[in-house]
Amino acid sequence: MMPMAAFSPRAAARPPWDRVLVTGGAGFLGSHLCTRLLDSDVEVDCVDNLSTGRAEKVAHLAGRPGFRFLERDISEPGCTDALTGPYDLVLHLAGPGSPAAWPDRPVEILDAASLGTRAVLAVAGRDGARFLLASSPPDTRHGSDADPVGPHSACAEAVRFSEALVAAQAGARGSNAGIVRLFTGYGPGMRTDDGGTPAAFIEQALAGRPVTVPGDGSRTHPLCYVDDMVDGVLLVAAGRSVRPVDIGGDEEPRAAEIARRVIDLTGSDSPLVFVDGAGDRPAGPRPVTGFAREIFGWLPGVTWQDGLERTVASLRGRPEPVPTATTERAGEWWA
Question: ω into residue 287 within 30 of 0, thus cis?
Fold first, then answer.
């Protein structure tokens, strides 16, 4: 295995891994990570049971040297027997990003967080690999942090348990394991059927339906374009931090601003309609990205306006707009 070394996304150097395991690799972020790694001459084993991921998200990688796709459930006994490695890095993204992903499958959510996380931690330990858990920000709006049998309990408890397990593994056994907490990510290849922002607005506008904005549209959303999110994940992966690291957008446009931008970009005749609903609830947690910036040098470079333009273009089947000097990401990964 290649030894880990100091790493900078601005350096025109090969990344410090030879082979990487990505669980949940056929999901939105996972597929982008697989592509970025392969483009950097890193071999990738992509594991996904396709419960929320889609095979077509990694279909463009089939046949590329160094890429292997395994349709497996990491929480099932014997799954790790196929993960022969050896790996230098294990990126654990398996599991839903929100309760909406698996609304009626709480047992699967908890199995992925417990059995699945233990299994891939063992694989990383076997190979002496860096392990990074992709987690979700804690959300206390529903009181689910105090109520393990509440309506959102499975997802909340799964997040807390998986993070506690990784931290315990690092503390008790000295494992090179860390956690990255991912806030609202968007971009080409994202799901548009989960009711989130900006996904729901784009789906409605492209279909010519009214674009419905909850409340008065003043609720803000810390959007993070997928390329910036990939940068953040890989920067944290290249370090040895155990402390959870927030990766999320530093811009927080209002819901009404996002909806109007989407309508403009799609050229849709959809009306903007304000409805009663989630917009009246307290806003969710916001990313605190100071640690990611100061320790890892991460800085998002795509504005939410430009990110939406690229996203809408991809969903409409058009080539993405060429970034200008003012909108290009700060630094390029492994040029």
Answer: no
Model confidence pLDDT, tens digit, residues 212-225:
999 999 999 999 99
Distances (CA, A) of 162 to 92, 109, 166: 10, 11, 6
Determine if the pTM surpasses 0.85.
yes
Closest CA to 25 of 81, 83, 102, 106: 83
Contact 252, 222 (CB under 8 A): yes
Torsion region of 230: left, alpha or beta (phi above 0 gives left; psi -120 to 50 gives alpha): alpha
Report, as ranges of residue numbers, the positions in the chain whose pLDDT lies below 70: 1-13, 96-103, 139-152, 277-283, 317-335
Q: Are 200 and 278 in contact (CB under 8 A)?
A: no
Of 116, 111, 163, 127, give the one whose Cα is nearest residue 20: 127
Tokens at 189, concatenated: 């290849």
Euclidean distance between CA atoms 61 and 76, whole angstroms = 25
User: How many residues belong to the chain?
Assistant: 335
pLDDT in tens, 124-142: 999 999 999 999 887 654 4
Q: Alpha-carbon distance 269 to 285, whole Å? A: 33
